[in-house]
Write a structure and sequence with these properties.
The protein is about 45% helix and about 20% strand. The chain is α/β, with parallel strands linked by helices. It folds into 2 domains: about 5-125, Rossmann fold; about 130-225, Winged helix-like DNA-binding domain superfamily/Winged helix DNA-binding domain (Arc Repressor Mutant, subunit A, Orthogonal Bundle), CATH 1.10.10.
Length: about 230
């Protein structure tokens, strides 16, 4: 069941879209302002985000930009603003598609299906040829971006995955926080280096097992390393 996050401040429209998506079999969450929507988008895993542009607390363009800094969740913008500048700005800040209000619900549902179908095809193509990176019982399948510890599949966000991949491809190499930040978030990222510590903690919570030593070791004052 695909999970869809609706970030829309028009409550009646949000309820209507929510109801229609549920009727189609999707699992949905609704947030009525940009800040709450951003928090949900970053802290939970969704298959698609439906995002209004004109939101209280934080506008949709800023929400899209911040989501795209940390995750690759597909975004469809829903808005009454139909100028070329608005459409280009939304797409440039990470949106995958754009639908203008008022819209027919059938068109929105078709766009959601098309986006999910495209992702499914891309995932299917990636499964044909797999390059693996291994450390003890931890395995990364690079093409389909699957991480396993033993037989258990570990669900990671895009940033968590990229961070783990870099560390596993550089066994015994101490990676500084700045180096990890530039490789995972990009050289022009405005994210502070302490975000690396936050994501290392997320990773440890997912890949480590209670009572066992963490696979990712901290090198005080420098950064992190996975040692053989």
């Amino acid at each position: 069941m695909s999970r869809i996050l609706i970030i829309e401040d028009e409550e009646n429209l949000a309820k209507f879209v929510d109801m229609e998506l549920k009727h189609e079999g999707y699992d949905t969450d609704v947030e009525l302002d940009g800040r709450a929507g951003l928090e949900a988008a970053l802290n939970q895993d969704f298959d698609v985000i439906l995002l209004d542009l004109m939101l209280p607390e934080l506008n949709g363009i800023e929400v899209a930009r911040r989501v795209r800094e940390l995750k690759d969740t597909p975004i469809i913008i829903m808005t009454a603003r139909d100028s070329v500048i608005d459409r280009v700005s939304g797409l440039d800040h990470g949106a995958d598609d754009y639908i203008v209000k008022p819209f027919a619900i059938e068109e929105l549902l078709a766009r959601v299906r098309a986006l999910l179908r495209r992702i499914s095809i891309e995932d299917g193509n990636n499964k044909e040829h797999q390059t693996t990176v291994n450390y003890k019982d931890l395995t990364i399948e690079k093409e389909n971006r699957v991480v396993r510890r033993g037989d258990e599949v570990i669900n990671l966000t895009k940033r968590e995955y990229e961070l783990l991949l870099i560390l596993m491809e550089n066994i015994n190499v101490v990676m500084s926080r700045k180096e990890l930040l530039s490789k995972v978030w990009g050289y022009d990222s405005k994210v502070e280096t302490n975000v690396v510590d936050v994501y290392i903690r997320y990773l440890r919570n997912k890949i480590d097992r209670p009572g066992e030593k963490s696979y990712i070791q901290t090198v005080r004052g420098t950064g992190y390393v996975i040692r053989s």
